[in-house]
Design goal:
The protein is mostly helical and about 120 residues long. It is built from 6 helices and 3 strands. About 10% of the residues are buried.
Amino acid sequence: MSKEKHINNTPHCTARISAIKDAMEILSGKWKFHILGTLIEGGKMRFMDLLREVDGIAAKMLSKELQDMEMNHLITRIVLNTKPVTVEYEITEYGKTLSPIIDEIAKWGAAYRSSLYHTR
């Protein structure tokens, strides 16, 4: 005889869990927060500038992550009429709403790292 779920079966919890899953799916991966933070701090940036700023990322991975974030309306891609073609990326207004979340995650990460080194 199994027990029924009581906490996570409520409409409130079900909606929260779905929202968290959506957010984690859009923001998951090693590079997205780094790219978003770079665009929030740096403003409009060209592909090669982003490649230089995001230490360790490969061009192919940067391209894929930028496409994903553009599809999810977190950044915009601007193609300039130059020869050769120049492409710039910019954080959208909706993407900017992630700034306080990124700040809080950074604070939490610093506190966590500190707690690991100070508890030994």
